[in-house]
Design brief:
148 residues, single chain, alpha+beta, 3 helices, OB fold (Dihydrolipoamide Acetyltransferase, E2P)
């Protein structure tokens, strides 16, 4: 076997090994590549006792503070189905009804999602307010001095 053929075989073997390793990694992380599961996803694909992210909108009229002042119960919906959530801790300032939310935690046996962390999905709020103001025409200057 010549040097050129040996190099070619080594290159092909390395490419085959790299492709196999990539395929194994992608199949192992298949479920973890999803940023969050929606309530409809939980009905179609049951999640075992592992931590995952639940995302959706906070249902209007569902936020209820408990007597201890720290625990909050609310419903996360994707307009098709809803999941009850009980969060113990301080909620972010942007958390409110009708707002997007992503919570990371576990689904209990009773069907209630108990998150360890909860944060609002603020990307659309930031973009909606930030860009129109940046590119809009400047406001007219008003004089603060008394007119004569």
């Amino acid at each position: 076997m010549t040097r050129k053929k040996r190099r070619l075989y080594m290159l092909l073997l390395a490419m085959l090994g790299l492709g196999t390793a990539t395929a194994l990694v992608l199949t192992a992380f298949r479920d973890n590549l999803v940023f969050f599961y929606s309530p409809s996803d939980l009905q179609t694909r049951p999640v075992a006792e592992r931590s995952f992210r639940l995302g959706g909108l906070v249902e209007n009229g569902s936020v209820k503070k408990q007597d201890d002042g720290i625990t909050t119960a609310f419903m996360v919906t994707d307009m098709k189905s809803s999941v009850p959530v009980v969060y113990k801790g301080l909620l972010p300032d942007l958390f409110r009804e009708g707002q997007g939310v992503v919570a990371e935690g576990k689904l209990g046996t009773d069907g209630i999602f108990v998150p360890a962390r909860c944060w609002p999905s603020t990307m659309r709020i930031t973009c909606r307010r930030k860009w129109p103001m940046r590119w809009s025409a400047p406001a007219p200057i008003r004089s603060t001095s008394p007119s004569r």
